[in-house]
Amino acid sequence: MLATELISLQNLFSLRFALPVILLVSLWTWESVRPFCENSPGRGRHALRNITIAVVNAIVTGALFGASTVFVADWTVENSFGLLQFTDQHAIGRFFAGLILLDLWMYVWHRLNHHIPLLWRFHRMHHSDSRMDVTTATRFHIGEHMISAGLRLLLIPLLGVSIWQIVAYEMGVVAMTHFHHANISIGRADHVLRWLVVTPDMHKIHHSRWQPETDSNYAVVLSIWDRIACSFRMREDVTTIDFGLDEFENERWQTIGGMLKTPFANSADLSAPKAAEPEIVGEDRSV
Ligand SMILES: [Zn+2]
Ligand SMILES: [Zn+2]
């Protein structure tokens, strides 16, 4: 690898780590000035807990998987390995094809997290947040990150993606997840934008505690995967959504210790799920 390429890649890595900070500060400010749900007491404590989880996750996964991810991606490119070698030979076309394939994998991976009981044990920590805001974008169990990073080491040679594509896609994911978890509304623009990407209203549905809604809208960046796989769902009035999971209603699941214990909780530890279905006015799968 040339020194100039190395410097540029280092700059890209720096931007990759600066981006969540910039997004957290700007979207937190937007939420403070014009929130979608009224800000209630405890907002700062909630943010601090979610961000602490994120910092620990970044340090641990970076230490365990950072070097191996770069090594596997460089090996893949040097040996012309993977699916993308058989596609468009034009560099730009292949670059974007890689990003689209990585986004398709994220859709599949997210859906598996909801349908495989072991994976759901980890992923439910993200859904147990009963007050959704920009910091919810950073709230994932370290176990989920480790399984995801491990599988990615297999995915890189399978697809044939480079470290540039991985870092570029990660930056897209960071930008989009902070945006669509934020406690904001973009009004009518949401209707238009969600034909292309996952919007705040679309992802709010995914955080509903009503399971048919929890098990919908799995896409991370491009919304088309939900439309193709018939998992797209909306409701007319998103202000009526109740966020969180019934079983994790107790405040003890919102502490850092409680969050880390979430995958290991058994039915005896959990609150009973509410039986009643919420009354949904204006359910609409087409918009
Ligand atoms: Zn989910
Ligand atoms: Zn989410």
UniProtKB/TrEMBL annotation:
Originating organism: Fuerstiella marisgermanici
Designated name of the protein: Fatty acid hydroxylase superfamily protein
Major location category of this protein: membrane
Keyword Cell inner membrane applies: no
UniProt key word Transmembrane helix: yes
Pfam families per the UniProt record, alphabetical: FA_hydroxylase
TM ranges: 12-30, 51-71, 91-109, 149-167
Keywords tagged on the record: Membrane, Oxidoreductase, Transmembrane, Transmembrane helix
GO molecular function: glyceryl-ether monooxygenase activity; iron ion binding
Domain Fatty acid hydroxylase, chain residue ranges per copy: 96-228
GO cellular component, one term: endomembrane system
Subcellular location: Endomembrane system
Membrane-protein topology: Multi-pass membrane protein
A Gene Ontology biological process term: membrane lipid metabolic process
